[in-house]
Amino acid sequence: MPWLQLKIETGKADAERIEEILESVGAGAVMLEDAADQPLFEPPLGTTPLWDATRVVALFTPDSEMDAILEYVAAELGQPLPPHRVEILEDQVWERAWMDHYHPMCFGDRLWVVPSWTPPPRPDAINLLLDPGLAFGTGTHATTALCMEWLDKLDLQGKTVIDYGCGSGILAVAALLLGARQAWCVDIDPQALQATRDNAERNGVADRLTTYFPDDMPHVEADVVVANILAGPLAELAPVLAQLTTKNGDLAVSGIITTQVEDLQKAYSPWFSLDTLQTKEENWCRLSGKRHADR
To answer: Could you give the C-alpha distances from 109 to 125, 126, 225, 251, in angstroms and in order?
Structure first.
C-alpha cells in the first residue's frame, strides 16, 4: 500500500506542536528531521534538542483527506502553515531496504564489521559479526570508526581491555577478536549491556567478556582502556579511567570535537599524555596516549 507523505519545514519552536497535531489527526508515523545539516554535539542532560530548521515528516493512508488535514493543522497553529509538500511514498519491503544500506566496513588493516546477512568480503580477515540494534555502535559513526582503527593498530595479544560506555560492545568484541585476553564492559544502559553480551555470544568471545554498571565495576586495571562517550562525561571520568589503566597502559577517548580537545588534554594530563590526535568528518576526534609510569 502506498502512503501519503507530508513534509513541513518549520523551526524548533513549532516542531513539537506540529508533531502533536499531526498525531491527533491520525498520522501513522511522525518523524522530526534536520532540515539544514546542523550538528547537535552535546545537549545538556534532560533536554530534547531540536534543529533550528526542523522538518516534520508524517505518513498518512492514501484515502486521507489531505486538504482538510492541512487546513486543520493551520487552524490549530493559529497561523498559516509553513512551507510544505505532499508526496506519494510507494510501499516497499522496508526491512530489505534498510539492510541494503548497511554493508561490511573495514577498519585499519585487519578488522571488518560484517552484518549477518552478508558474506565476509575477506574470509581470512578478522570479521566481527554485528547487526544494527538498540545500542549505539555499529562502526558507521566517525567516533566508533576512530576507536576501531586505533584498536586495529595495537598489539592486543594477551592484553586486558576496558570498554567504558560500551554501547553495543563493538569495541570490546573487536579487541577480543584482535587477540585480547579479557574485556570488561561498562555502561549505564541495561539495553547496552544486554546488546554487548549478545554480540559477544554471536562472535564466540562471551567467555572472555564481562559487563557492569559503573557502580558495580570492581577495582581492576587494564592494559588498554577505550571510552567513546562525549566530552563532558569524559572530563568527569578522567580520575576513574586513570585508576582503571595500568602504568604505561594505553588509553583512547573519543566522542569529542576539535574545539574540546585542549580541555580534555588538560583534564587527563595528571595521569596521561594524550598527544595523538585523529579526526574524521564533522570535526569528530579521538585522543590517545599512555598512562604515566610514575603517577
So the answer is: 9, 10, 21, 20
Cα(240)–Cα(243) distance, integer angstroms:
5
Portions of the chain given CATH number 3.40.50.150: 141-291
Strands (E), 12-133: 29-34, 53-60, 84-89, 105-107, 111-114, 126-129
In sequence order, what are the beta bridge partners of 30?
58
Question: Is the CATH number of domain 141-291 3.40.50.150?
Answer: yes
SS3 (DSSP) at 76: helix
On whether 165 is known to bind a ligand per the annotation, the reply is yes
Strands 160-164 and 182-186: parallel
Domain 3-91 has CATH 3.40.30.10: no
53 vs 65: CA distance, rounded Å = 27
What residue ranges of the chain are covered by domains with CATH 3.30.70.260? 3-91
What is the per-residue pLDDT for 276?
85
Q: Is 187 annotated as a binding residue?
A: yes
Question: Whole-model pTM?
Answer: 0.71
Cell numbers linked to 89: 511514498
Rounded to 10 degrees, the C-alpha dihedral 109/196/102/62 comes to -170
11 is in an annotated binding site: no
Q: Among the listed ranges 41-45, 177-181, 236-240, which one has the minimum average pLDDT value? A: 41-45
- 111: closest CA among 151, 52, 75, 169? 151
